[in-house]
């Protein structure tokens, strides 16, 4: 009888835990608005994206790849592009924003790169004669570099504060030990804050970080193996750039405390395609506010690249 009673109690506990987890998952599930659509990836996962059509005659489509927080939605830069004849597609990486998938835990970003390739194939099929551009911010820039090294039909690539190298900071011994413990014993646990650990001097960057912490679409925590996958991706950026055969525009901020752009300079130097442009904005930091200072330059570059495509 005692064994049966213990079995029943254990079953009830697990049943309650399952119910609680299910309810929590339901509460966290975000419902996409009507202006979002999705495609189904090869493994059945729905990848959501927002599409903004160009006004008048379309000159091209710009696909936006987000930073490590993921999510993202229409902003002033997308409206400016539309006014100037360029449509936008804002993608939510799997596991972020409205897209399905495990949040904050991936063994490798290869699966994300393949998602993006599938979306680009879909867009090319829908409008085969329209020039296709990709724009990546932060780690989204690393994805763009990888795609450009493996795809020949892009009209151009725009990298905004690409996450090519992170500043060396002193890590306390206790944090190192915790990292090692997580690596060996719970590599999938969401134990690392996605927000930058170092001190951020740019005021607008600090405000963006605070806003991101309140944004339901943004990823807040990641696992050790997710962080290591991200590191592998940006470590490959220079090598991938040497094989990237599309025109490129590289923009980065002089007050970017999140990324060490010495490696971004190397990306520019080794980029395979001869048509390459670099813009450094001395007063800009790492966040999306950088677009306030470079939207006109991006549009000018796109007009030239679309004319040459």
Topology overview:
Elements: H1 2-28, E1 36-40, E2 46-52, E3 60-65, H2 76-83, E4 86-91, H3 110-126, E5 132-137, H4 139-150, E6 156-160, H5 173-185, E7 192-193, H6 203-214, E8 221-222, H7 224-235, H8 237-241, E9 248-253, H9 262-270, E10 276-281, H10 291-308
CATH class: Alpha Beta
Q: What's the shape? A: globular
Q: How many angstroms separate the termini?
A: 78 Å
Number of domains: 1
Radius of gyration: 21 Å
The H-level CATH homologous superfamily, spelled out, is Alpha/Beta hydrolase fold, catalytic domain
Helix content: 40-55%
Question: What is the overall pLDDT average?
Answer: 89
Widest sheet: strand ordering: 1-2-4-3-5-6-9-10
Strand content: 15-25%
Q: What is the second-level CATH architecture?
A: 3-Layer(aba) Sandwich
Count, helices? 10
* Number of DSSP-assigned strands: 10
Q: Order of SSEs, N→C?
A: HEEEHEHEHEHEHEHHEHEH
How many strands, which pairing sense, and closed or not: the largest β-sheet?
8 strands, mixed
Low-confidence stretches: 1-27
Any overview of this molecule?
This protein is of the alpha/beta class and 309 residues long. Helices cover 43% and strands 17% of the residues. It has helices at residues 2-28, 76-83, 110-126, 139-150, 173-185, 203-214, 224-235, 237-241, 262-270, 291-308; strands at residues 36-40, 46-52, 60-65, 86-91, 132-137, 156-160, 192-193, 221-222, 248-253, 276-281. The strands form two sheets. It has an eight-stranded mixed beta sheet with strand order 1-2-4-3-5-6-9-10, with helices on both faces. A two-stranded antiparallel ribbon has the order 7-8. Strand 9 (248-253), helix 9 and strand 10 form a beta-alpha-beta unit. Helix 2 (76-83) runs parallel beside helix 10 (291-308). The longest helix has 27 residues, at 2-28. The radius of gyration is 21 Å and the shape is globular. The chain starts with a helix and ends with a helix.
């Amino acid at each position: 009888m005692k064994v049966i009673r213990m079995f029943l109690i254990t079953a009830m506990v697990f049943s309650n835990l399952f119910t609680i987890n299910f309810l929590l998952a339901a509460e966290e599930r975000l419902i996409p608005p009507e202006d979002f659509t999705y495609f189904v990836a090869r493994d059945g996962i729905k990848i959501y994206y927002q599409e903004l059509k160009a006004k008048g005659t379309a000159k091209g489509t710009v696909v936006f790849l987000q930073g490590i927080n993921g999510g993202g939605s229409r902003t002033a830069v997308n409206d400016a592009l539309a006014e100037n004849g360029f449509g936008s597609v804002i993608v939510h990486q799997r596991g972020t924003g409205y897209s399905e998938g495990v949040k904050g835990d991936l063994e490798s970003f290869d699966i994300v790169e393949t998602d993006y390739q599938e979306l680009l194939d879909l867009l090319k099929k829908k409008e085969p004669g329209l020039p296709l551009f990709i724009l990546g911010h932060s780690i989204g820039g690393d994805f763009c570099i990888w795609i450009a090294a493996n795809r020949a039909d892009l009209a151009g690539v725009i990298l905004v504060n690409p996450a090519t190298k992170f500043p060396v900071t002193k890590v306390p011994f206790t944090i190192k030990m915790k990292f090692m413990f997580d690596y060996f014993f719970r590599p999938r646990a969401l134990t690392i804050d996605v927000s930058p650990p170092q001190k951020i001097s740019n005021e607008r960057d600090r405000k963006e970080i605070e806003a991101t912490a309140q944004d339901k679409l943004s990823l807040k925590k990641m696992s050790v193996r997710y962080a290591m996958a991200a590191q592998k991706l940006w470590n490959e950026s220079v090598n991938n750039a040497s094989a990237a055969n599309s025109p490129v525009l590289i923009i980065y901020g002089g007050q970017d405390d999140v990324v060490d752009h010495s490696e971004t300079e190397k990306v520019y130097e080794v980029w395979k395609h001869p048509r390459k442009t670099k813009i450094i904005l001395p007063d800009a930091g790492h966040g999306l506010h950088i677009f306030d200072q470079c939207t006109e330059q991006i549009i000018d570059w796109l007009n030239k690249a679309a004319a040459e495509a």
